[in-house]
Amino acid sequence: MAGNKPSAKLEKQPGTIPAPVVSSPAPARGRCLLRRTVLVGIAAIATFYYVGSLVCQINREINAQQGLWLAKAFGGHSQKGFKHKAAPFGKVAEEIFLAVPNPASALATSRQYATAPHLAGSEGDYKTATDFLALLQSELGISASSPLPVFPAGSSESRGATLSITSSSPSKPSAWIDVYYPVMNTPLDRSLEILDEDGNAVWAANLEEQADETDSDAGKYADAVPTFHGLSRGGEAAGKLVYANYGRKQDYDALVASGVELNGTIVITRYGGIFRGLKVKGAQDLGAVACLIYSDPRDDGTVTQENGYEAYPNGPARNPTSVQRGSTQFLSIYPGDPTTPGYPSYENSTRTEGTNIPTIPSLPISWANAKVLLDEIEEGGGNRTISLVNHVDDRVIPIWNTMGVIPGYIKDEVVVIGNHRDVAHCIRAAWVLGATDPSSGTASIHEVIRGLGVLLKQGWKPLRTILIASWDAEEYGLIGSTEWGEDFADWIDEHVVAYVNLDSSVSGSSFYSAASPSLSHFMRSAAETIAHPTKPGLTLWDATKDKGPLYGNHIDAEALSVYEEEQAQMAADDLGVNVLGSGSDYTVFLQRIGVASTNNGFKSTLSDPVYHYHSVFDSERWQELYADPGFLRHVAIARFLGLQTLRLADSIVLPLNTTHYSVQLDAYLDKVEQLRSSMALDVDFSSLRESISSLRAASVALDNEKSEAESELRHLIRRIARRKFVRDHIRKAWCKLRKIFRKPCKHRKHEAGEEYGHRGNEEHARPRAGHAHPASPARTIEGRTVKPRVGRWAGMLKEQREREHGRDSADKHVRGQKCHIEAHDGKDKELREAFVRAVKRVRAANKKLVAFERGFIHPDGIRDREWYRHLGVAPGKWLGYGATTLPALTESITFDANATMAKYEAGRLKVLFDKLAEEIQV
Ligand SMILES: *[C@@H]1O[C@H](CO)[C@@H](O)[C@H](O)[C@H]1NC(C)=O
Ligand SMILES: *[C@@H]1O[C@H](CO)[C@@H](O)[C@H](O)[C@H]1NC(C)=O
Ligand SMILES: *[C@@H]1O[C@H](CO)[C@@H](O)[C@H](O)[C@H]1NC(C)=O
Ligand SMILES: *[C@@H]1O[C@H](CO)[C@@H](O)[C@H](O)[C@H]1NC(C)=O
Ligand SMILES: *[C@@H]1O[C@H](CO)[C@@H](O)[C@H](O)[C@H]1NC(C)=O
Question: Where in this chain does the record put each PA domain (predicted)?
């Protein structure tokens, strides 16, 4: 811009002698002018360039320091452990994390866990708990202690380990093991026979699975874990055999309607449709004396021998001797230790007679055995009886939950991530080898922990505290998670903002995600961020449409309709995220305490290699050959889980969409109205409908508030950071100038103190032992050298807070700060106050967001199963895995067909929703 001026001016100079073009100097005045103009031009360009690059640099630094600024915002004076100004945060942290999980590592973990069942007794399970503890210690930089931190539940150490997460503001990660003492059973002996009219056995079932060397692990351990039902009733029974299809409510209703007498019989049902314990409950309620449950190849979709597929281990079809073990707890009544409903099972807890376990014995059996029995019924052998023995040993057995904490800046908000570990244990759960259930989940969790470890080593610290839980005894009925949840219900209620669950990560080709509706958008967008495990250019979310490749001509129509019904019970919303029912560890968080939760994984479809659930054939070989060759699905799930954790922990405003939730409530009520019409009940829901719409209005207002609160805070952070940087640069320049004149910069000393923040935090600013921090305090991020330092804002905040609390700090450093701050102007004060207000505003919005899910909790719970207190969603009374929305209201219609009750339930919901709308009002 300035470039043309000199020549233009030159020509205008009057009375000058034309000079040789090159060598002759311009006349004095002209020369001077020219030089000045050129200098001004250069200076202008330089300044322009300098300012431009400064702005760029400032922006870059502010972006790189998001974490620091948010730490200051939410962590206040307790920024212990914040070591690097440019520690990874936000997108940068996500990218670092996502690069960590890898298939080789996941495969190694899977092989470690899934290739040998730990033998009877409790040692094997204890070992998996301490292995997990060691993993947390090594990856999260926690020093190993001796003796091991293994605390009996209820002891002051155990209580303190969890409660101190929020009460004492720990600065470093920690890990420990809580021991609970539930009543569980272990198998003794079993038999199953057909008796002739004289009581002689004419056939005795071989109850073991038959495996050979083709799958060497399965071959070795086929009879290592007896085929029995966890929490089944021990005993003996004999009676005539009655076939009850899937053992669903409608199946039993149909039998009763057609006049079949079940009293005194042994019922045989096939797996599928509902949770196995409820099949036994249905038989028990009708007077049956025992129950058998078998795996029917008809339920394997197109992957059957009939369609030409060979049976495992020679092919992908069902091994006919495979047996599905598993718990027969009445999951929809209550989960957890049967003898301590609603309270934790400490060693000396008072115990009651469990009402969520069967009073009749049961056995799981193979298709090979079932065929003999079904033929018997078909051929009219009704005169003969079946004799069944199921001896078990009921006793108190210790279980071990391994817990790990990564403290965040926001002390009182905690994100919990959990996976059950009870793995490969002969007696305890995870039936036999468990390559899928739960070792696939365990392998994915390992990758998540490794990723978080890498972030920690780079100076990352989450905004919110992250609690990692490795639950035990999930397979017996969600016992580890339920007992811990009951133990710390008040603490969870007060502090836990979300629960992220993983069970199995891979049993087939189809990706699914389930969540509280407030987390639907969050789940979907996280899944859309991650690459499809095998198809280039697609995302993990696209894998929701994936199916197995094994098709065939025959498929059982009923199995197909049951499969579709199951999908319907998971009823995805318009985003494609499913509703949470039960069957995994999120249950106590969501359905008893009201914590927004998520769950996800790859599941098997009707055209996938048959997943031998809870059988010895759920082996490492099957997993590597059929479920996830290459282990890329394991890795995708690890990435997804980690991304959920990072986003929940590090977002300023929690990514909970309450408006989406209130839109779903309308859809739930639509469903109820349909049921009402089909049952011809006279109930009016218009006032409940109005409450939902007020709730939605309140939520929309909250949406505005939360986005305004966040952008206000971000805006202030940029302003303050900019001021600080500009000031720093000016001071630096000033100091340089003084140096030239050999006058040392007086600010220097003060600045140093300011740069390194609070003296009291020195200890925490040092790299932790066991961490691979570079020895020098300077480090390189994205090619730039960054010195770790803690800025001054924390001091201002601390001061502000102390003033608020009316405390008079004697801290010399803070006094120094005050002087320094006052040296600056009222503008700083104004900004500081605005900043504190903005932080408060964000925190208030977050509180309301968390309160939303809590708002569904009713202290009286759901009728006949009061443990479940969430009136928005519960495992269906006769489903178990599947969800029923607005459960108390829906079931008053579907099961009781009682208008009085439906009115009462609609009233309860209305009161809840009105209260909730008031609570989230902005
Ligand atoms: C089954 O029959 C016995 C008598 O044989 C009777 O006492 C009992 O109440 C019946 N149970 C059911 C559920 O009908
Ligand atoms: C439970 O009771 C036993 C026997 O009275 C006692 O030895 C033990 O210390 C108690 N355990 C706890 C955790 O209180
Ligand atoms: C069952 O017993 C009845 C009479 O007790 C007899 O008539 C019938 O043939 C028997 N059925 C079979 C299949 O043995
Ligand atoms: C929240 O959910 C509603 C309803 O699905 C949707 O319209 C809105 O865009 C969502 N907001 C965010 C931030 O995802
Ligand atoms: C309907 O429910 C109400 C309230 O629980 C109860 O008093 C009444 O007896 C029930 N009516 C029928 C027909 O079961």
Answer: 239-317
Distance of CA 866 to the CA centre of its chain: 25
Q: Is 686 a catalytic residue?
A: yes
- According to DSSP, the β-strands at 385-396 and 410-420 are unpaired
Domain ranges across the chain: 1-7+26-56, 90-182+397-551+577-651, 186-394, 659-705+789-922
Contacts of 299 (CB under 8 A, 6+ apart): 270, 271, 272, 556, 559, 562
Q: What is the residue with the minimal CA distance to atom 1 of ligand 2? A: 348
User: What is the overall mean pLDDT for the chain?
Assistant: 86
CATH code for residues 90-182+397-551+577-651: 3.40.630.10
Which CATH number does 659-705+789-922 carry?
Answer: 1.20.930.40
Tens-digit pLDDT profile for residues 412-456: 999 999 999 875 343 333 466 778 888 899 999 999 999 999 999
Q: Is 524 in the pocket of ligand 4 (CB under 6 A)?
A: no
Closest C-alpha residue for ligand 2 atom 14: 348
Active site residue 687: no
Q: Is the pLDDT of residue 208 over 70?
A: yes
Domains 90-182+397-551+577-651 and 186-394 share a fold: no
The CATH code for residues 186-394 is: 3.50.30.30
Cβ-based neighbour number of residue 1 at 10 Å: 8
Return the SS3 of 195: strand
Q: Give 834's contacts (C-beta < 8 A, 6+ positions apart).
A: 716
Q: How far is the CA of 660 from the centre of ligand 4 (A)?
A: 6
Sign of CA dihedral 721, 722, 728, 731: negative
CB count in 10 Å sphere of residue 857? 20
Name residue 884's beta-bridge partners.
874
Q: Is 841 in the pocket of ligand 4 (CB under 6 A)?
A: no
Whose tokens are 């090594």? That residue is 138
Q: Can you spell out the DSSP letters for 420-447?
A: E---SBSSSSSBTT-TTTTHHHHHHHHH
Q: Which two tokens stand for residue 447?
A: 């990758």
Residues with CB under 6 A from ligand 3: 380-381, 383
* Span from the CA of 86 to the centroid of ligand 4 (angstroms): 32
The sign one gets for the Cα dihedral 215, 216, 219, 222 is negative
Ligand 4 lined by 659 (C-beta under 6 Å)? yes
Q: Does 712 participate in catalysis according to the annotation?
A: no
pLDDT in tens, 75-101: 765 444 445 567 898 999 999 999 999
Query: Does residue 521 have its Cβ closer than 6 Å to ligand 4?
Result: yes
